[in-house]
Amino acid sequence: MAKIRENFPILSTKVYGKPLVYFDNAATSQKPQQVIDRLVKYYQEENSNVHRGIYYLSELASAKYEEARDVVRTHLNANSLAEIIFVRGATEGINLVANSWGKHNIVAGDEVIISAMEHHANLVPWQQLCKEKGATLKVIPIDDNGEIIFEEYKNLLSDKTKIVAVAHTSNGIGTINPIKEIIAEAHKKNIPVLVDGCQASPHFKVDVKELDCDFYVFSGHKTFAPTGIGVLYGKENLLDAMPPYQMGGEMIKFVSFTETTFNDLPIKFEAATPNIAGAIGLATAIEYVDSLGRNNIENYEEDLKSYALQKLQEVKNLKLIGNAKNRIPLFSFVVEGTHPLDLGTMLDFEGIAIRTGNHCAQPLMQRMGVAATCRASLAFYNTKAEVDYFVDSLNKVVKKLIS
Ligand code: 7TS
To answer: Could you list the pLDDT tens digit for every one of the 403 residues in the chain?
Structure first.
């Protein structure tokens, strides 16, 4: 662990003279030195625009960018490079599908299914699409533990359902959804499923073939890679039939003043100069995590999660919001008699970074009966010692606030 933590320089910095305890990994993860070095190398030795130059540097940058796509393809176990679209992040990936697939396939009277625990990024694009088309947004209810009520989901699926869009894992309460079963159920009626994998990809291996999902999105910055890069995976036949999302350079084959023919996949969906360094950095991040061993990470996080759950119970009047059996090491909570914002602010002075608020999931917060929570979200570089310090600090600030 000490060696792994050394790979993340920011983890040994101090805030307000106290060692940083970074528990806001669901918002964004920290980056290992390997990724930082790779970005520097790119800009020092390889920087150029892709897919357009006939000169050495442009060919080098293009090759590295396409190699990065192949690393992502292998990582997700996708069939072909055509299925891997580089986007800015999950939000852009979902908007791409809602605007391109959605506008092409949804008509008045259709239904789109999401769940009650979606991040706004997997809610608002579908809601607005439905409004525009005269379609209806249906919401899979969740129970008090924050788990999807599967029977209700089955009841919502109908001939009117055109797509199901659900989170693999909730950013607000940490639930891991039974995504394979959700997909299988939709496929019984030939309904495609988009999975928002933002909070899954930092914690466990995703195999799109095994899941049989139709679309999968995630953000690089939550997965130890730079900001501004993310991935949309889509089944080739679906992507192929979809119109382009943005128009411009790169995504065209031939342009006249009257007509344009579009490029092949995946470039059809990559208008403009892409985030070349970001894509290369993402590939490095994937390789870095692979080098640690995905199983090792899963086992370590499982142990850390159980430990943190048990320690949190030591805090008087703490109420965990969301109590799913299957969850990531992400804990949303409130403490009776205190406001989450006050707790977050006071923990900050102890060097602890957590998120407070509605976590861009306002309807989820309403369902769980809270306006806001404190959220501690852990990654594989966090430790039991940090959990101990966090719980001690929480006890200390709660005492101050209610005395
Ligand atoms: N979907 C989920 C499940 C998320 O957690 C987030 C970001 C997004 C989509 C959007 O990702 P982006 O990279 O496109 O912005 N979630 C959070 C969070 O929980 N705290 O800050 C950002």
So the answer is: 999 999 999 999 999 999 999 999 999 999 999 999 999 999 999 999 998 778 999 999 999 999 999 999 999 999 999 999 999 999 999 999 999 999 999 999 999 999 999 999 999 999 999 999 999 999 999 999 999 999 999 999 999 999 999 999 999 999 999 999 999 999 999 999 999 999 999 999 999 999 999 999 999 999 999 999 999 999 999 999 999 999 999 999 999 999 999 999 999 999 999 999 999 999 999 999 999 999 999 999 999 999 999 999 999 999 999 999 999 999 999 999 999 999 999 999 999 999 999 999 999 999 999 999 999 999 999 999 999 999 999 999 999 999 8
Mutation to probe ligand 1, out of 118, 198, 374 (largest number of atoms < 8 A from CB): 198
Preceding omega of 329 cis (within 30 degrees of 0) = no
Task: State how far the Cα of 72 lies from the Cα of 268, in Å rounded to an integer.
Answer: 18
Q: Is the CB of 312 under 6 A from ligand 1?
A: no
Ligand 1, atom 21, residue with closest C-alpha: 27
Cβ of residue 124 lying under 6 Å from some atom of ligand 1: no
Q: Parse the chain into domains and list their residue ranges.
A: 2-30+293-402, 35-290
Domain at 2-30+293-402: CATH architecture: Alpha-Beta Complex (3.90)
Taking the CA atoms of 246, 247, 252 and 258 in sequence, report the sign of the dihedral they define.
positive
User: How much distance in Å is there from the Cα of 310 to the middle of ligand 1?
Assistant: 27
> Other CB atoms closer than 10 Å to residue 77's CB: what's the count?
14
Q: Could you tell me the fold of the domain covering 35-290?
A: Aspartate Aminotransferase; domain 2 (3.40.640)
301: which residues sit within 8 A by CB, 6+ positions away?
Answer: 203, 328, 329, 378, 380
- Ligand 1 in contact with 91 (CB < 6 A)? yes
Q: Is the CB of 353 under 6 A from ligand 1?
A: no
389 by DSSP, 3-state: which?
helix
Rounded to two decimals, the pTM is 0.98
Cβ contact 142:115 at 8 Å: yes
Q: Known catalytic residue: 360?
A: yes
Ligand 1 atom at shortest distance from the alpha carbon of 361: 19
Q: Which of 130, 198, 213, 360 is catalytic?
A: 360
Residue type (1 letter), 205: K
- What is the distance, to the nearest Å, from the Cα of residue 8 to the centroid of all Cα atoms in its chain? 20
